[in-house]
Design goal:
With about 55 residues, the chain is of the alpha+beta class. It has one helix at about 20-30; strands at about 5-10, 35-40, 45-50.
């Protein structure tokens, strides 16, 4: 089972939807981080996560 680290989060109700989270994840990937955007239904937020030990 892989372990994930939450790098950042954005509210799902943002006027631009997931775009801010996608833009932040892209910036982190440019810096060498393995960032992915996922939706957390329990908190209604887009989370940017990284697998532990992959950065």
């Amino acid at each position: 089972m892989s372990e994930h680290t939450i790098l950042d989060s954005f509210p799902a109700g943002h006027p631009r939807g997931s775009w801010p989270a996608e833009e932040r994840a892209a910036a982190l990937r440019e810096q060498g981080e393995s960032a992915t955007v996922v939706m957390d239904l329990d908190t209604d937020r887009f989370l940017i996560v990284s697998e532990a030990g992959t950065a």
